[in-house]
Hints:
The chain is mainly beta. The chain contains one helix and eleven strands; from the N terminus they run ββαβββββββββ. The strands form three sheets. Strands 5, 6, 7, 10 and 11 form a five-stranded mixed β-sheet that branches.
Amino acid sequence: PSRHGASPNNxxxxxxxxxxxxxxxxxxxxxLWIDNEESLISFMGxxxxxxxxxxxxDIPAMDYDREGVLAIWMGRRTTGGYKLELAxxxxxxxxxxxxxxVRWIEPAGNAxxxxxxxxxxxxxxxxxxxxxxxxxxxxxxxxxxxxxVEKPENR
Length: 155
């Protein structure tokens, strides 16, 4: 869908980087609102640190007074088969909380999987809006992570 209709009360989300690995982000799942380029570069360095010769993904030009980046990660996993995807680019806002829906993909219990450390991570570009918190929910309605959002004047 077109982003032309995006507004603080009708935000859209767009994937900046998907299927990236964040093994260095720790054991547990989480989310982080990134509201400046320095923090974005630092975060992207963490997710690429363990990949030998890995270059940072392109960092898009952004107006951090109007938008930010939501980073979501699954935590450290010991096999392949895990993945995060944006379920819809539409973000709903309820009681000053933005709801971002993701596909939280886990391998089937009987799947034969490569034994390797992974840390699925997804980075989403979002306009700022009338919200101070972001809740990440999977398609079943399970809350997977939450992140606080600071207003530009509070940075």
